[in-house]
């Protein structure tokens, strides 16, 4: 098996040469033997043999040259000779490798992110068996929903734990933050409340100690222990034994009982958990016990299918037991007028293999769009690569023809191109992989999320194959053509390539035109997203966020009795107000656009309660509207006379007045707020009307909001959110307030945030889309520019003689420039027309991601086309100038 | 006119030899051609081995190491199926060349 032997000896050229030597040596020996047999003396025989044999070294060279010409060994030599060629033309190789690196790198980075966010399953045992249980019509639920995940109340969870037919195990969890320190600037750790069976259901085994069992999760358990994540263990204990060590969580001491493996990040993709404690510890760690509340929707449910059941069966079973579960879990705290809705709710199950994810809901559409964009960039990369390779091999036709003329076989030439393509694509792919890692890291930092990112080898192989095939395909084109044309014809055709292709852009023109088309699509979408983001950023939320500092503070450690907390809060607020630099300050239960929400049903006094409407709420202190510069349209702000003893008052916004049909002057009207866990239905008198502001989300129009006086809240908590309007820079202001708070008590924990920053943070998906599509758009334009530049330079080089003749015959420089530019203009016009069609066809896909503008915005398309025209013309100006500077004499002499 | 230079003739001779002798080493091929042609055709080693190795690369012959009758280790070459096909087409081609050259020589 010659081939097999050669594969084995790949790279060990010496072995093959040894073998040839042996063969030739034996030949000599046989020759000598024959001579001796015919009666010659040994010396004569040897001399005769050597004479006939000739120079053994030359012979070996010739034999081994034949051998090398097809052996696999020589492929390596081809690569080496390709490397030599590239070192000689660094410009070309650099452009090809850079093109590949950008195309491959950008694609890999985006794909990795998408893979991690959208596709990757939980790092747990058989993730496909996992299901998530949730309430179908959860909008009907009344009360507090403090998580973005599908949630149920603890009483419902306890029922589910008793009856989970079709599931081999079921568990509940809730992500939360625990404060690590007791006072001052607080540090929070990402924590989890988990049911006893949580780790068991997920199949996560501890790498040290133990995880919770059902016995740990019993009512009144206190704080039986904490399970920490591998990351937290490394970070806090540097990998030293942590079992039995104490942690402080929300000022309570807890012992570490176990450590989870490194790849387990929790259930929610993107949120790394640090510390898990049992659900039964909640009343011990927090001021308010929510275990018995049927209005606290806070636990997410995950279950594992048993081998006999499907998700559909479990969902069907949950559907049938829903009514009994809801009937048995309703508590006296549930608003009576909403009980009917509560009883009508239904539970269902859905697959949850990839974990539940806020990231997924937030980023899924933007990421899909980005993936499509990255795919287009890959296409452009390939087109660019193709035209680069074409240009190169066309230029080398002569070289190839010469090789053919001196006896190289076609296959030899083809292999030469093969070696070059291999070298180029490997270099490009490696650079791309490195770039992808850097980009991925940058993306994660930009998104401020933690994800497990690894280079995806399947993807890498795919991209490598694509780039290799592109290089090869377009590299081969010219090699084949050269090998089919008689060498003489090529050499006669002169130094500027084949006569046949003179003056035409040919296939390369088609490639560049399609690059222009695709670039237009990318530029268009980049401009759409950037404009959309800009509109969102400049969208008036109805209040002034600039210069407003949010101070989160907690005084639970001071153990102030509930009846004195309101007074303490007022005192604290006054201290903050009197801090130097503070203009205005107000206390609020809801920071607008901060993600938190509170809604209740309301109805006008005297009307039937079935005519209820939904409204958002917020509890605020006096001066809130001043602090946020929200105009008071009519009536008054809250003041110190609004207290728990005085009649309940409310200030509403214009949207509220509109929605409840109160007309232009709602002052004096009274509305009911439905009963809540802590209060019976309440009647509020409207004392003020304020301008509309956004509540949940910048994208939504202003919604009805009713503001209640925080002083009239009877169950004042130990935490506050103070909005501070300051004329000083926020950092300076933070220092001042820190000082003030520490003067009051060192036991107060606090944390700062800029309101403006927080709002911008809520636009992360939009800004990711705008930034990355902008990046890709720029990349596409850059690639197209190099493509066009290459094509134009080639055309000029090819037509130097012709231009020389024209100039010798008296053509003006301007007309030569125009001659060349006309070519570029054609490519551009064809590309733009094609691109505009694709853009308009694809635009509707972007519709849902845009804010404040139509997906088929003609002005944006025109701007993109104009921008592209400008840069591509720029790319063709240099070659056309070069054409105009052709020296007629030189160009003719070189012919 | 088909490709039929001297190299082509050498290939033909080697292929034919191998088809007649079954399998042979380089020296044997050389001696066989010399003997059969009554010393009219003397193939040089310098042409023979490159040709053999080229034919091996083309897949016309297959090589393996074996002992000679005199107890020497030698590289033996044998025809492959592709080699046989090659031989057939070369023989046909050669016959035409001979006919053509002959016709030119006989022109009077």
From TrEMBL, chain A:
Residue stretches spanning the membrane: 92-114, 369-392, 413-439, 459-482, 505-529, 768-791, 825-853, 859-878
ABC3 transporter permease C-terminal domain location: 372-487, 775-888
GO terms under cellular component: plasma membrane
Subcellular location: Cell membrane
Pfam family, one: MacB_PCD
InterPro entries: ABC3_permease_C, ADOP, MacB_PCD, Macrolide_Exporter_MacB, Perm_prefix_1
MacB-like periplasmic core domain sequence ranges: 93-318, 516-670
Topology of this chain in the membrane: Multi-pass membrane protein
Gene Ontology molecular functions: transmembrane transporter activity
Keywords: Cell membrane, Membrane, Transmembrane, Transmembrane helix
The protein's name in its UniProt record: ABC transporter permease
Organism: Occallatibacter riparius
TrEMBL record, chain B:
Residue spans crossing the bilayer: none
SUPFAM superfamilies from the UniProt entry: Winged helix' DNA-binding domain
Annotated Transcription regulator PadR N-terminal domain residues: 14-88
Pfam families cross-referenced by the UniProt entry: PadR
InterPro entries in the cross-refs: Metal_resp_DNA-bind_regulator (IPR052509), Tscrpt_reg_PadR_acidobac-type (IPR017799), Tscrpt_reg_PadR_N (IPR005149), WH-like_DNA-bd_sf (IPR036388), WH_DNA-bd_sf (IPR036390)
The protein, known as: PadR family transcriptional regulator
Organism, as annotated: Occallatibacter riparius
């Amino acid at each position: 098996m010659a081939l097999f032997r050669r594969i084995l000896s790949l790279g060990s050229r010496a072995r093959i040469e040894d073998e040839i030597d042996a063969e030739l040596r034996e030949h000599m020996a046989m020759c000598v033997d024959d001579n001796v047999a015919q009666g010659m003396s040994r010396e004569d025989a040897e001399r005769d043999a050597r004479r006939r044999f000739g120079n053994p070294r030359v012979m070996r060279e010739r034999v081994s040259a034949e051998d090398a010409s097809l052996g696999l060994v020589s492929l390596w030599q081809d690569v080496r000779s390709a490397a030599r060629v590239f070192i000689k033309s660094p410009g070309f190789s650099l452009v090809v490798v850079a093109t590949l690196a950008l195309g491959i790198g950008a694609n890999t980075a985006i794909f990795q992110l998408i893979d991690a966010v959208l596709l990757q399953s939980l790092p747990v045992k058989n993730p496909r068996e996992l299901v998530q249980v949730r309430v179908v019509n959860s909008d009907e639920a009344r009360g507090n929903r403090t998580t973005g995940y599908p949630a149920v109340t603890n009483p419902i969870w306890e029922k589910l734990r008793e009856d989970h037919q079709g599931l081999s195990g079921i568990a509940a969890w809730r992500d939360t933050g625990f404060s690590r320190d007791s006072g001052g600037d607080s540090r929070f750790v990402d924590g989890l409340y988990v049911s006893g069976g949580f780790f068991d259901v997920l199949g996560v085994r501890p790498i040290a100690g133990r995880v919770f069992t059902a016995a740990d999760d019993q009512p009144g358990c206190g704080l039986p222990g904490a399970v920490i994540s591998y990351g937290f263990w490394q970070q806090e204990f540097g990998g030293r034994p942590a079992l039995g060590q104490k942690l402080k969580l929300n000022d309570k001491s807890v012992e570490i009982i176990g450590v989870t493996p490194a790849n387990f990040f929790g259930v929610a993709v993107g949120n790394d958990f640090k510390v898990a404690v049992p659900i039964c510890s909640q009343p011990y760690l927090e001021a308010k016990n929510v275990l018995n509340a049927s209005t606290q929707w806070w636990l997410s449910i995950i279950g594992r299918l048993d081998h006999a059941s499907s998700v559909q069966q479990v969902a069907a079973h949950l559907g049938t037991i829903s009514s009994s579960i809801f009937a048995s879990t309703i508590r006296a705290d549930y608003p009576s007028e909403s009980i009917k809705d509560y009883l009508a709710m239904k539970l269902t199950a859905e697959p949850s293999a990839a974990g539940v994810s806020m990231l997924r809901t937030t980023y899924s559409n933007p990421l899909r769009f980005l993936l499509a964009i990255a795919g287009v960039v890959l296409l452009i990369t390939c087109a660019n690569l193709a035209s680069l390779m074409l240009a190169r091999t066309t230029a080398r036709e002569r070289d190839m023809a010469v090789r053919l003329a001196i006896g190289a076989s076609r296959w030899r030439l083809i292999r030469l191109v093969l070696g070059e393509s291999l070298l180029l694509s490997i270099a490009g792919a490696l650079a791309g992989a490195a770039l992808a890692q850097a980009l991925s890291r940058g993306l994660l930092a930009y998104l401020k999320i933690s994800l497990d990112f690894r280079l995806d080898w399947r993807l890498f192989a795919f991209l490598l194959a694509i780039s290799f095939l592109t290089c090869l395909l377009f590299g081969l084109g010219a090699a084949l053509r050269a090998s089919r044309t008689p060498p003489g014809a090529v050499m006669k055709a002169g130094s500027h390539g084949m006569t046949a292709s003179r003056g035409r852009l040919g296939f390369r023109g088609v490639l560049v035109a399609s690059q222009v088309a695709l670039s237009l699509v990318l530029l268009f979408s980049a401009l759409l997203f950037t404009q959309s983001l800009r509109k969102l950023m400049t969208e008036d939320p109805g209040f002034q966020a600039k210069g407003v500092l949010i101070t989160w503070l907690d005084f639970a450690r001071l153990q102030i009795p509930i009846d004195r907390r309101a007074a303490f809060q007022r005192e604290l607020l006054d201290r903050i107000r009197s801090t130097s630099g503070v203009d205005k300050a107000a206390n609020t239960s809801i920071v607008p656009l901060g993600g938190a929400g509170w809604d209740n049903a309301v109805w006008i006094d005297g009307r039937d309660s079935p005519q209820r409407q939904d409204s958002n709420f917020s509890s605020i202190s006096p001066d809130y509207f001043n602090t946020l510069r929200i105009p008071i349209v009519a009536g008054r702000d809250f003041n110190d006379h609004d207290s728990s003893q005085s009649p309940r008052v409310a200030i509403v916004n214009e949207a509220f007045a509109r929605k409840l049909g109160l007309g232009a002057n709602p002052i004096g009207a009274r509305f009911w707020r439905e009963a809540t866990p802590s209060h019976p239905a309440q009647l509020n008198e409207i004392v003020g009307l304020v301008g509309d502001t956004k509540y949940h989300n910048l994208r939504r129009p202003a919604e009805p909001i009713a503001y209640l006086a925080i002083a009239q809240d009877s169950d004042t908590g130990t935490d506050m959110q103070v909005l501070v309007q300051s004329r000083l820079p926020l950092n300076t202001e933070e220092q001042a307030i820190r000082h003030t708070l520490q003067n009051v008590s060192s036991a107060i924990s606090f944390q700062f945030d800029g309101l403006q920053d927080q709002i911008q943070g809520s636009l992360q998906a939009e800004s990711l889309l705008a930034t990355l599509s902008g990046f890709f758009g720029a990349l596409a334009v850059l690639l197209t520019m190099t493509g066009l530049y290459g094509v134009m330079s080639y055309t000029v080089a090819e037509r130097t003689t012709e231009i020389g003749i024209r100039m010798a015959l008296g053509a003006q420089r301007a007309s030569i420039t125009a001659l060349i530019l006309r070519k570029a203009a054609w490519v551009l016009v064809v590309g733009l027309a094609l691109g505009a069609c694709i853009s308009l066809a694809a635009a509707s896909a972007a519709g849902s991601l845009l804010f404040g503008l139509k997906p088929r915005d003609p002005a944006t398309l025109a701007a993109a086309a104009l921008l592209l025209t400008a840069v591509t013309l720029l790319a063709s100006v240099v070659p056309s100038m070069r054409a105009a500077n052709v020296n007629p004499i030189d160009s003719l002499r070189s012919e | 006119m088909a490709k039929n230079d001297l190299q082509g003739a050498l290939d033909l001779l080697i292929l034919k030899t191998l088809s007649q002798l079954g399998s042979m080493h380089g020296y044997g091929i050389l001696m066989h051609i010399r003997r059969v042609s009554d010393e009219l055709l003397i193939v040089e080693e310098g042409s023979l081995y490159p040709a053999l190795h080229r034919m091996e690369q083309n897949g016309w012959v297959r090589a393996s190491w074996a002992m000679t009758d005199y107890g020497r280790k030698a590289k033996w070459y044998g025809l492959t199926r592709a080699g046989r096909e090659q031989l057939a087409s070369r023989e046909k081609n050669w016959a035409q060349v001979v006919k053509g050259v002959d016709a030119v020589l006989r022109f009077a």
